[in-house]
Structures are given as C-alpha cells and as structure tokens.
C-alpha cells in the first residue's frame, strides 16, 4: 500500500512535508511497548503507536521502521520531528484510536508484519 | 572447565549458550583473547535522551564492516535492550563492545543495585520498571528475554546490592 493511501484512510496529517508519499509500505505493526516493537519487527514495517518520545525514533536506528503513525491525536515535539527528519522517517498523525487505525488499514489490505 | 547446560542459573549466575556453540563459547571465555576492535560508551542513570546511542553506533560500525542485516538487527536489538536496562534499573554503567573476526562480544557493567532473582527477571512479562520508565513505553518485561533470543551466548552475574555484569556474544555467521 502506498503511504498516501494510508494518510487518506487515517485522515492523517503528514508532519514532514518532504516525505515521498508514493513510497510502498509492505506491512504494519501496532504497539505502545518498545520491547514488543523490537521483538516483532523483522522486516520493513510501518509502526502505529501512541508513544511520542525520542526512543520511538531511536528504534528506527535498530530496526527497519519505514514510517510512524501517531494515533489518538498524539503529537511529537519538534525535537522528535527533527530526529525523524535526520533519519528520513515519515511521520503521520491521526485522531483515530490505535484499534480503529489498525482495523481500517488491515481491511484496506495492509497486512500485519510477520512475527 | 565449566560445565554449561543450555541455560543454567544459580546463585546470581546465569548462562545461556545456543546449542552447538558450547565448545566455541567455552573456548572464548577461557582464553579471553584480545579484540580486533573495541568501542566503549557510558550509560547514565535514567538518561533516555542518551540511551540507545551506543547501540546505534555499534550497529553502524558493524554495518560498515559488512555484517549482514539480519545479524545487525540482532546485535542492535540485544544491545539496545541491555542499554535501556542499565539506564532504567541501575545507577548507571558502561557498555563495552569487542569485535572479533567471527563474533561480537558486548559487556555491560553497572553500579548496582543488582537483580534480586535472575530467573524471575528472565520470565517474559515480569518487570520492576517504575512509572516514569513505563510511561516511555518500557517495562514490557521482555528486555532480558529479548537479549537472550537475539544472542548466541548470554552471561549474567548479579546479586542484590551489588553491580551487575551482563555480557553476550553474537556470531556473524549464524543461521538466523
């Protein structure tokens, strides 16, 4: 699924305007627990989370996260957005809950990452 | 020679060695040869701005050395989890990486206060993380299990009231 479709489905706001919205996203994972994310992400994956601290961006140094969707209307601070810009990680904000966001994307054909 | 079971813990001592690697791992810990390259970083207590930088640095170094992406991921995840453990649960410590031809040896030493029961700490879901640490998304109780899962050998020495030593080996040529 293309990133621009994900933004449309989630009625999302793109925080880094320079990102390539034509980018293909192969799969997704949703969690608010960092160890879960580390344990379950073994391929290029879109992350849906309510965490907005710098460790979420730090995760992208360890594992292959192709983009982050902040759910439940959460917004990261500018410092976090800058960290993502340095790493070229697309950031999207949505007011939908994690459950609803995941369900909408899954129904639209975005598969769960292999764990 | 020490007699290692696949995973063994007693009196503040925990060993895990991936089956089939016993001889190589035992040989390494007996000889403790000098590393080809070394890298060291500090892990201050509860500093979650800093935590994770050391692991990212090691991953980048191994990447430049041509280590394959699956192994890079395992090293990064194990090192990061250990780094977060030191920042979240101890009074601060250090991370030392020693790189050899066939594997990386990473050693974490902290200033205490030690793990009361290592076996319990190895149980997935068990966590003693405080509220501040949990709010950041840590405290899933998967730190040590995740380190074990990604390493080829893991050794922990810890007792309540004393510093903790955690070290692991990851081979560059392993199948996973």
Question: Which short descriptors sum up this protein?
Answer:
heterodimer, A: alpha/beta, six-stranded mixed sheet, 5 helices, 6 strands, B: 176 residues, alpha+beta, Heat Shock Protein 90, seven-stranded antiparallel sheet, 6 helices, 7 strands, 24% strand
Layout: helices, strands, pairs:
The complex is a heterodimer of chains A (115) and B (176).
Chain A: H1 3-9, E1 13-14, E2 27-30, H2 34-40, E3 45-49, H3 54-62, E4 65-70, H4 78-87, E5 91-93, H5 98-107, E6 111-112
Parallel strand pairs in A: 2-3, 2-6, 3-4, 4-5
Antiparallel strand pairs in A: 1-5
Helix pairs in contact in A: 3-4
Chain B: E1 7-10, E2 13-17, H1 22-31, E3 37-43, H2 53-64, H3 69-89, E4 93-99, E5 103-110, H4 118-121, H5 131-135, H6 143-150, E6 153-157, E7 165-171
Antiparallel strand pairs in B: 1-2, 2-6, 3-4, 4-5, 5-7, 6-7
Helix pairs in contact in B: 2-3, 3-6
How much helicity do the residues of chain A have? 25-40%
The number of strands of chain A is: 6
Number of strands of chain B: 7
At CATH level 3, the topology of chain B is: Heat Shock Protein 90
Largest sheet of chain A: 6 strands, mixed
What gyration radius of chain A follows from the Cα positions, in whole Å? Answer: 12 Å
Strand order of the largest sheet of chain B: 1-2-6-7-5-4-3
Proportion of residues in β-strands of chain A: 15-25%
Which class of secondary structure composition applies to the elements of chain A?
alpha/beta
Which second-level CATH architecture of chain B applies?
2-Layer Sandwich
Strand content of chain B: 15-25%
Low-confidence stretches of chain B: none
**CATH superfamily placement of chain B:** Histidine kinase-like ATPase, C-terminal domain
Give the strand order, joined by hyphens, for the main sheet of chain A: 1-5-4-3-2-6
CATH class of chain B: Alpha Beta
H-E string of chain A: HEEHEHEHEHE
Number of domains of chain B: 1
The coarse silhouette of chain B is globular
Q: Describe the biggest sheet of chain B? A: 7 strands, antiparallel
> Largest chain-chain contact?
A-B, 19 and 24 residues
The overall pLDDT average of chain A reads 96
């Amino acid at each position: 699924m293309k990133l621009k479709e994900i933004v449309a489905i989630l009625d999302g706001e793109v925080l880094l305007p320079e990102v390539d919205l034509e980018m293909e996203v192969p799969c997704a994972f949703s969690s608010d627990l960092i160890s879960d994310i580390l344990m379950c992400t073994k391929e290029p994956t879109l992350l849906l989370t309510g965490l907005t601290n710098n460790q979420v961006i730090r995760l992208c140094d360890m594992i292959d996260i192709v983009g982050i969707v902040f759910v439940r209307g959460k917004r990261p601070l500018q410092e976090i957005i800058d960290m993502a810009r340095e790493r070229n990680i697309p950031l999207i904000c949505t007011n939908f809950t994690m459950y609803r966001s995941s369900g909408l994307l899954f129904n639209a054909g975005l598969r769960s990452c292999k764990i | 020679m020490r007699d290692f079971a696949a995973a063994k813990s007693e009196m503040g001592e925990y060993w895990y060695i991936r089956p089939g690697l016993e001889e190589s791992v035992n040989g390494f810990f007996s000889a403790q040869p000098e590393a080809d390259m070394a890298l060291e970083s500090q892990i201050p207590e509860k500093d979650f701005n800093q935590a994770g930088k050391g692991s990212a640095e090691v991953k980048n170094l191994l990447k430049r050395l041509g280590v394959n992406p699956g192994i890079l991921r395992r090293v990064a995840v194990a090192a990061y989890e250990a780094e977060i453990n030191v920042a979240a649960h101890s009074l601060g410590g250090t991370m030392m990486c020693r790189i050899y031809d066939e594997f990386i040896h990473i050693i974490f030493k902290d200033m205490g206060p030690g793990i009361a029961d290592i076996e319990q700490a190895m149980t997935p879901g068990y966590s003693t993380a405080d509220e501040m640490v949990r709010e950041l998304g840590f405290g899933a109780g998967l730190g040590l299990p995740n380190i074990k899962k990604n390493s080829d050998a893991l050794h922990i020495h810890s007792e309540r009231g004393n510093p903790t030593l955690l070290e692991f080996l990851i081979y560059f040529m392993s199948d996973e």
